[in-house]
Amino acid sequence: MSAVDINGLDQRATARVVLIAAAAALGGFLFGFDTAVINGAVDAIRGNFDLGAGHIGFAVSCALLGSALGAWYAGPLADRLGRVRTMQVAAVLLAVSALGSGLVHGVWDLIAWRLVGGIGVGMASVIAPTYIAEVSPAQVRGRLGSLQQLAIVLGIFAALLSDAFLANTAGGAAKALWLGLEAWRWMFLVAVVPALIYGCLVLGVPESPRHLVAKGRLAEARNVLRQVLDLHNESALDHKVTDIQQSLRSEYRPRLRDLRGPVAGLLPVVWIGILLSVFQQFVGINVIFYYSSTLWHSVGFSEADAFTITVATSIVNVLVTLVAIALVDRIGRKPLLVIGSAGMTVTLGLMAWCFSQATGTGAALTLPAPWGPVALVAANAYVVFFGLSWGPMVWVLLGEMFPNRIRAIALAVAASAQWLANFAITSSFPALAEIGLSFAYGLYALFALLSLGFVVYAVRETKGMELEDMRD
C-alpha cells in the first residue's frame, strides 16, 4: 500500500495493521456464525419441542434481544475497560452460550443460552468496527472496516456449511450423531471452537490509540501509532497525538445526553446511524440466512437440497463482499448504497411475484415451473446487491461517521437499533409467511425502495476523511 500525505503526516498502512484488524474482525465471524447456525436447526427444534409459528420465531430471534443489550452496554464498557478487554469478554460469552445451547433440555433453556450468546454478539458487533476504525489509516480504513462484514459472511458460510455437513452425516438435523446427541445440538456445540480462537487472538492485539489517549496513557498511544501507521518521525507522532487529544477534549466518557440535538431530540448524525441500521435489517436479509433451509424445503426442495442451496447462497455472499472491499475506498460508501438499494428493490419485488404464483399451503406449498428457479436466481441476486452495499457499508459508516467525542455511545445506540430491527424482522417472518411469502417479500421490497430515498437525501460520504474531522 503506497504512502500518502494526510495533514502533513507520512502514513503507510503496514502488514501489522492488516493483521490486527483481521484479528479484531474475527468477532464478526462469531457474529455471523452464532446468528446463522440456527438456520439448520429450525425444523429439528420445532419438531423436538413441538413449537408453533410464534414460538419458533421467538426461539430463532431471541438471541437478537441479547444482541441489542450487548450492543447497548458495549460502548460504555469499552470506554471503561478498553476495546481489547471488551472483545475478550464477548468471546467468553459466546463460548459459554455455544456449550449451553447444545446441551439444553427444553426450549426455555435454549432461549436463555441464546440470549447469553446474543449479548456477546452484540458486544462484538459494536467493538470490532470501532476498534478497526481507530487503528486504521484513513486511506485504507474503508477496506479494513469491510473486514468486519467479510468476517460476518464467512461466519455465516461456515455455520451453514457446518449445519449441512452435520445434518447430512446424521441423515437429518433431528437424527442422533456423536455421543448420542442430535445433529442440531452439534450445530451449536461446534461454535465453541471459533469463540476460543477469537479470545486467544485478541490477547495479542494492541489497545486502541484513541482509548489510550483518552485514558492519558500517551506513551503507549504513541507506540501503537508508530506500529500501525508506520510513523517514525517524532514530530509527526506528536502531531497525531495532539489531533486525537483535541478531538476528545470535550469529554472522555460520552453519555446519552451528548446525543441530544434539534431533530426529534437527537443529533442528525445519530438519526442517520439509527436509520442505516434499521434499513439494513428491514430489507429482510436475515430471513435468507436464518430461515432459508426451511423456506426452500417448504416449497418442494428436499432437506439435503435446501441445505445445499443455503450454502451456495452464503458462498455468493462471501464473494460479493470481497468485491465490496475492493470498491469501498475507490468509489465510496454512498454510491454503493445507492446501487444496492436499487438492486434489492427489483430483486425482492421479483421474489414477491414468484411466491405469488405458489400453490398449496403449509408443508404442501410448491412453486410451479418456472417460478422455483426464478425465485432462486432472484434470491441470490438480492444477496449480491446486499453484499455489495448494505452489508459492509453500514458497518464501515457506523465505525467512522460519528465524531470522536460521541463515537462509542452513538455506535452503541445505532447497533442496538439494528439488533431490535433484526429481532422484529426475524421473529415476525414465520407469521408473515403464514399470511403469504409474496406479502413478506413485497414488504421487504418496499423498505428497500425507502432506503434508496434515504441514502440519496440523508447519507454523507466519508471516504478519505480522518476520524478527527467527523462532525455532528
TrEMBL record:
Question: Which InterPro entries does UniProt cross-reference here?
Answer: MFS_dom, MFS_sugar_transport-like, MFS_Sugar_Transporter, MFS_trans_sf, Sugar/inositol_transpt, Sugar_transporter_CS, XylE-like
Quote a single Gene Ontology cellular component term.
plasma membrane
Membrane topology, from the record = Multi-pass membrane protein
Can you give the residue ranges of the Major facilitator superfamily (MFS) profile domain? 20-463
Record localization: Cell membrane
Catalysed transformations (reactions): D-xylose(in) + H(+)(in) = D-xylose(out) + H(+)(out)
- Transmembrane region positions? 13-33, 53-74, 86-105, 111-132, 144-166, 186-205, 263-291, 306-328, 335-355, 375-398, 410-433, 439-459
Keyword Transit peptide (UniProt): no
Q: Which UniProt keywords apply?
A: Cell membrane, Membrane, Sugar transport, Transmembrane, Transmembrane helix, Transport
List the Gene Ontology MF annotations in alphabetical order: transmembrane transporter activity
> What Pfam families does its record include?
Sugar_tr
Q: What is its main location?
A: membrane
NCBIfam families xref list: SP
Record family assignment: Belongs to the major facilitator superfamily. Sugar transporter (TC 2.A.1.1) family.
Q: List the PANTHER family.
A: D-XYLOSE-PROTON SYMPORTER-LIKE 2
Q: Under what name is this protein listed?
A: D-xylose-proton symporter
The opening ranks of the lineage are:
Bacteria, Pseudomonadati, Pseudomonadota, Gammaproteobacteria, Lysobacterales
